[in-house]
Amino acid sequence: MKFGIISGSHRLSSNSGKVAKLMKGQLEARGIEVFCRDLALEPLPFWNEEVSQPDSPVYRAWAPLAAEIRSCVAYIVISPEWGGMCPPALKNFFLFPTARQMVHKPALLVTVSTGIGGSYPAH
């Protein structure tokens, strides 16, 4: 059994990244294999239709991650709240997976808000 954790913040040393590390440690302590991707440390290029062309840089950036995503049985997505929305890096991430990679798998959405708002971080 393997879980995937996606930290959706652009910011280095973000609270989302800290929560991802904490959750990863908790799962691994229970003997669960974890794949963790911090979009601040390993950003993806902007999605475009070249993602299906093996010789394109977009394909080369996504292909290794796609294999990891496909091998997970469940996901934890950690999103900071930026003005009531998730950040662009996380929106961009969700453009990449195909139905075979993520569909019909359980997911937990974790939201983080350290700002003055934060009443609707999971919009």
Could you walk me through the main structural features you see in this protein, from its secondary elements to its overall organization?
The protein is an alpha/beta fold. 33% of the residues lie in helices and 20% in strands. The protein has helices at residues 15-29, 57-71, 88-93, 99-102, and strands at 2-7, 33-38, 74-80, 107-112. It has a four-stranded parallel β-sheet, with helices on both faces. Strand 1 (2-7), helix 1 (15-29) and strand 2 (33-38) form a beta-alpha-beta unit. The protein starts with a strand and ends in an 11-residue tail after the last strand.
Task: Break the fold down into its secondary structure elements and pairings.
Layout: E1 2-7, H1 15-29, E2 33-38, H2 57-71, E3 74-80, H3 88-93, H4 99-102, E4 107-112
Parallel strand pairs: 1-2, 1-3, 3-4
Please tag this protein with its features:
123 residues, 33% helix, globular, alpha/beta, 4 strands, 4 helices, single chain, 4-stranded parallel beta sheet
Condensed summary:
This protein is of the alpha/beta class. It is built from four helices and four strands, in the order βαβαβααβ.
Q: Approximately what portion of the residues adopt beta-strand conformation? A: 15-25%
Write down how many β-strands occur, each being a DSSP E stretch of 2 or more residues.
4
User: What Rg, in angstroms, do the CA atoms define?
Assistant: 14 Å
Characterize the largest beta sheet: strand count, sense, and whether it forms a barrel.
4 strands, parallel
**Low-pLDDT segments, ≥5 res:** none
Helix content: 25-40%
How far the N terminus sits from the C terminus, by CA atoms, comes to 29 Å
Question: What's the total helix number?
Answer: 4
What is the residue-averaged pLDDT? 91
Q: Give the SSE order as H and E letters.
A: EHEHEHHE
Which structural class should the secondary elements be placed in?
A: alpha/beta
The strand line-up of the biggest sheet is 2-1-3-4
Shape: globular
